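Input sequence (191 aa), recorded before submission:
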Amino acid sequence: MSLNATARKPQALPEAPVREPRRRLQPVTAPAVRRKPKLAYALMAVAGAMAIGAVQIGLSLAITQDSFTLASLSSQQHELDLQTNALQEDLTGISSPQSLATGAAALGMVVAGSPAYLRLSDGAVFGQGTGAVGTSTVDPNGAGAVSNALLNDVPVNASTEDDAAPDGTAGQTAQDLPPAITDGLPSPSTR
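Predicted structure, token format:
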């Protein structure tokens, strides 16, 4: 067989159909009906924005007021801490051994002799079973006493029944009484 007989003839491709260009212009019909904007939606949006602004202002004022209150309370706490420290220092001075010895001597108390013991099983007394007599041999304000800086300007409260006033104030004048506490403890002004 020959080569020509077996070779096929190429087929022609079909041509694409020709399309006409589409027109993009269309005739204008009646204009579309425009809907009215809803007034309620606009009012709701404005009211919401105003409500958010009002809440922010309210929160800001509340936080500011709380900070002023906190500052005031911190100032009061500082003053009370200073007063507590001063009162604690006075208490330490008054409860010191020098102050107690001075107060005991002013009340006429004397140092006892040797101690006495009581046995509870049979009630026997061991040691000297009599009271202390005479004057005290301990002078808290004598030449050998060590001064206590906490006792400066602290009067010893050595009142007896003889100088007690009939109303029970023990001879204290109005200046000796502490000030009345009306709104918290009094504090010194530091500025």
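Checked by second reader. Residues 12 and 18 are 17 Å apart (CA to CA).
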